Amino acid sequence: MSVLENFHDWKSFLGERVQQAKTAGMESDTIENVAYQIGGYLAEQVDPKNDQERLLKQLWDVADDTQRKDLASMMVKLVQGGNVQ
């Protein structure tokens, strides 16, 4: 099963990658920029596997560039300590 099929698994996977980036010394702005780039790739190349991913894709699709950066930043913050199930 892919980590994209279960939103909880995806959040855990993303959280681990963010923590690894921080441990390696990557700045928060750089991490958020990478998240923005990954968000763009996922929105264009990967079919959503669950309701949460479909919602994120819909939000990404209607957002302008600034809003997409904000959404990527929020996802980083979510996986760093958010309690959403």
Describe the model.
By secondary structure, the chain is mainly alpha-helical. It has one domain (about 5-80): Cytochrome Bc1 Complex, Chain D, domain 2 (Orthogonal Bundle). It is built from four helices and no strands. Helix 1 packs across helix 4 (about 65-80), helix 2 (about 30-45) packs across helix 3 and helix 2 (about 30-45) packs across helix 4 (about 65-80). The radius of gyration is 12 Å and the shape is globular. The two termini are about 20 Å apart.
Topology (SSEs and partners):
Blueprint (H helix, E strand, L loop, with lengths): L6 H17 L4 H18 L5 H12 L2 H17 L4
Helix pairs in contact: 1-4, 2-3, 2-4
Summarize the model shown:
The protein has 85 residues and is an all-alpha fold. The protein is built from four helices and no strands.
Summary tags:
single chain, 85 residues, mainly alpha, Cytochrome Bc1 Complex, Chain D, domain 2, 4 helices, DUF3243, YmfJ/YflH_sf, DUF3243 domain-containing protein, Uncharacterised_YmfJ
